[in-house]
Amino acid sequence: MEPRHYYKELQYSEDLLWYIQEETSLLGIVNAYFTVHGKKHSKINQEAKQKIYPNNKFFYNICPSHQNSPNLYSFYVDEDKKLFYCLGCGTAGSVFEFIMNCYQIDINEATEVLGSIINLIEANLLPEKLKEISKELKQHYGKQDQWIEKSKEKTQYLTTRVDTYLQRSDLENIDIRKTANRLCCSEEFIEKRYHNLLSQQPKEKIKIESIPRFQ
Ligand SMILES: [Zn+2]
Predict the structure, then answer these.
(1) What is the pTM of this model?
(2) What is the mean pLDDT of residues 184-208?
(3) What is the CATH number that goes with domain 14-143?
(4) How far apart are the CA of 37 and the centre of ligand 1, in A?
(5) Cβ-proximal residues to 57 (8 Å cutoff; 6+ apart), any chain
């Protein structure tokens, strides 16, 4: 998350915003919003569809900022980095920007809504408009755990596949990009597994006869 000095109207501390961002599941909020309002952002008035990828990445076929073609899964949520990004229109940000944009509220209102969802702020004390937003999001928030679990399973499967492939390869001459293409995953992922395997390889021992001796 970028420092929020550019929100001149910000009334809360940046620490509080960081805390809320850490404690909130962006996936949970995105999913709750799409469950209620997804259809209106779809070109063909269809419910949002989601694809689960390894490493806590989730792609949707709708976007709150533009009318997406239903077959393109261009809006994605990176739950680990706590950021969303749309490959179609370029809209991006954290959970704060997501609900500010979706509900046309400011940074303070977004802080209050999210704070109430994670039970940091008493929802009943919020103004009526925010109370409604909080209520509808909270109603569908919390279902993300099952998808996070599925993503974890996919990560484990992919890890095994990549590790098996790498163990059979000549690690010294491996082409990361080609390997990524072949195994249909990101170069970043291959690189991570590659370095992990290298660090596990036993160091070659020096032969006793090659050590210089005193005459
Ligand atoms: Zn978009």
Answers:
(1) 0.82
(2) 85
(3) 3.90.580.10
(4) 15
(5) 76, 77, 78, 79, 151
